[in-house]
Amino acid sequence: MTRSAFLRARRPEHKQQRREAILAAARELARTSGVRNVSLGAVAEAVGLAKSNIVRYFGTREEIYLELLTDEWRQWAEAAAERLRTTAGGTAAAVTALAETLVERPLFCDLLSHAATSLEHNVSVSAARSFKHAVHARVAEMGAVVAGATDLTEREGGELAAAASGLAGMLYPAANPPPALAQVYAEDPELAAACPVLLPTLVRALSALAAGLPTLREE
């Protein structure tokens, strides 16, 4: 849609189209450049709008990406639930399903890595509340599905799912180092050994957590 078409839009459906165009542009820029490298100006340019028009729909850059993170949470929860419902093998298979569906979503992992440090900052109270309610609901849903596929309780299943997302956000930047560190690792095998490989590291950590959770149950 052109800039002039955006400026003429007044009807609710046109406003929704603007929001979707902004989100789509921000998503594509993040996929190609990384979340941390995308500015509000870059999003505005990509959709053909002035920054002052962007903030009519999203108050800040962080609110755009917080909404994208909400959607990525939904997609991961749905994919993980489908995998868990069709996977036999108990806790080990459930852990693998959670980890693999996370690793299959690099944008989700990238967004998770910025959630607490930047995306939850510089946002309105309503945006923060909406995001937290959405995540809380997804974790509860996943807890029930994990419990159905393992010997864990729903609470423990939710804790495992929440930990999976947190660990993915922490490990993703380390497993995908910036150019300078990538060169260091390429030139120094001893240091390269400290660079985690995302999937096996995630599986190992979640396996340990899943094994430990039942031991903390109150009698």
TrEMBL record:
Keywords: DNA-binding. GO terms for molecular function: DNA-binding transcription factor activity; transcription cis-regulatory region binding. Residues 16-76 form the HTH tetR-type domain. PROSITE patterns: HTH_TETR_2 (PS50977). Signal peptide: none annotated. The keyword DNA-binding applies. The keyword Nucleotide-binding does not apply. It comes from the Bacteria. Residues 39-58 bind DNA. This is Transcriptional regulator, TetR family. It comes from Nonomuraea gerenzanensis.
